[in-house]
Amino acid sequence: GENVEQHPSTLSVQEGDSAVIKCTYSDSASNYFPWYKQELGKGPQLIIDIRSNVGEKKDQRIAVTLNKTAKHFSLHITETQPEDSAVYFCAASLPLRGQNFVFGPGTRLSVLP
Amino acid sequence: GAGVSQSPSNKVTEKGKDVELRCDPISGHTALYWYRQSLGQGLEFLIYFQGNSAPDKSGLPSDRFSAERTGGSVSTLTIQRTQQEDSAVYLCASTAGLNEQFFGPGTRLTVL
Fold it and tell me: Residue A60: what pLDDT?
């Protein structure tokens, strides 16, 4: 089955710097790759997603890139702010298993003021 | 409501007792998912519903875990004879199709 790895597990950056989180997946049939942000005591919330027919997607300070050949995708946050501090999860979805989403283990991002 | 709701928000129970966790998905969402999140860990897939049927139960950790969904809406996750290792946050999510999963706030289960 699908396996998703995520690095780093923790990341600290200074406010205003950029943060990059990387994920790899194992099943080339996966075709949907969302990123979720989870704040303390809350459920995960989608912040950006990308499908396998697109190489890059951007939404203001957040961007995601996908390399299908290498089977990895990355989250880029620019001009980080303290409110970006949270746990970020990547996921990969297999279309033939009822959209079963496999999540990475998460990255705890701390933005230092 | 506007989002996915779960109840109770917190549940403390004694080892060996049964618990029921409820999820109200967004109205009209056909797919519903249950996940388990242990402290500081990622999301562990438990079960997926499409309508009232569960084509994928592969994530249920033991036969003490079961789930049902009625009327294509509300779902209940039942854990029988709870064990301390069942302590976790149980998250529910719903989706309208091939797109974004909307998560509820979760139920924090503590088994003493």
Answer: 95
Task: Give the Cα separation of B36 and B47 in Å (integer).
Answer: 10
The CA distance from B46 to B67, in Å, is 9
Which amino acid type is present at position B40? G
How far from chain centre, in Å, is Cα B87? 13
pLDDT (mean) for B42-46: 89
CA of B3: how far to CAs of B19, B29, B42, B69, B103, in Å? 23, 11, 22, 18, 8
pLDDT, residue A99, reads 56
Q: Is B55 on the interface with A (CB under 8 A)?
A: yes
Minimum distance, in Å, between the CA of residue A16 and any CA atom of chain B:
26
Record the tokens describing residue A43, joined without a space: 């459920």
CA distances to A24, A42, A66 from B25, rounded to whole Å, are: 30, 16, 30
pLDDT per residue as tens digits for the range A48-100: 999 888 899 999 999 999 999 999 999 999 999 999 999 999 999 876 555 57
Residues in B closer than 8 angstroms to A43, CB to CB, are: 4, 91, 93, 103-106
Within B31-76, residue ranges assigned H as helices are none
Chains A, B: CB contacts within 8 A come to 52
